[in-house]
């Protein structure tokens, strides 16, 4: 593996199937552009005469659209920004925190990252979309799934406050798991 001498930017993007690392190499003398997602080369272009522009690719299991914008700031200085689904990374992550819940837990020495997509009620665990069974209960709904031999349940209960909406709680082996902040 050649050393990444032209590495100019690294981003970490938390998606439902995991946290992905995006690395970008930009050779301002050769015009080379290389995009790596999780260490795997996605795009390689040599001898680009135009040093500004954009590179678009996909990230993760859901093939989320990502774009790296290359802009000249002054002289030979360049600025690199990452957009996810057409939004700046910051905006995308702010919006994501409203549409998903994430929990990180350890079971029998293994770390798990569980993500609930609130709009679809899809549950992801360590990159895999889980088989779930939903049921209505007295105070809301429960979404049941298994992680290894552990039974898990995401309870959805109305907060009673319109602004807060529905509160989602992950319960594993009758224990409540605190939500993770990514």
Q: How do the helices and strands line up, and which of them pair or pack?
A:
Elements: E1 7-15, E2 18-26, E3 33-37, E4 40-45, E5 53-59, E6 64-74, E7 77-84, E8 87-88, H1 89-99, E9 100-107, E10 110-117, E11 122-125, E12 128-129, E13 133-137, E14 140-147, E15 150-158, E16 166-172, E17 175-177
Antiparallel strand pairs: 1-2, 2-3, 3-4, 5-6, 6-7, 7-8, 9-10, 10-11, 11-12, 13-14, 14-15, 15-16, 16-17
- Tell me the major beta sheet: 5 strands, antiparallel
How much β-strand is present in the residues?
over 45%
Biggest sheet strand line-up: 13-14-15-16-17
Helical amount: under 10%
Which stretches are low in confidence, meaning pLDDT under 50 for 5 or more residues running? none
Write the CATH fold name of the largest domain: Lipocalin
Using only C-alpha atoms, the radius of gyration works out to: 20 Å
Provide the succession of SSEs. EEEEEEEEHEEEEEEEEE
Subcellular location: Cytoplasm
Keywords: Apoptosis, Cytoplasm
GO cellular component, one term: cytoplasm
Protein name: Fas apoptotic inhibitory molecule 1
Structure explained in plain terms:
Helix content is 6%, strand content 61%. The model has no long low-confidence stretch (mean pLDDT 91). Strands 13-14-15-16-17 form a five-stranded antiparallel sheet, with no helix packed on it. A four-stranded antiparallel sheet has the order 1-2-3-4, with no helix packed on it. The chain has one helix and 17 strands. The protein has one helix at residues 89-99, and strands spanning 7-15, 18-26, 33-37, 40-45, 53-59, 64-74, 77-84, 87-88, 100-107, 110-117, 122-125, 128-129, 133-137, 140-147, 150-158, 166-172, 175-177. It folds into two domains: 7-85, Lipocalin, CATH 2.40.128; 100-177, Lipocalin, CATH 2.40.128.180. The chain has 182 residues and is mainly beta. It is elongated. A hairpin with a 2-residue loop joins strand 1 and strand 2.
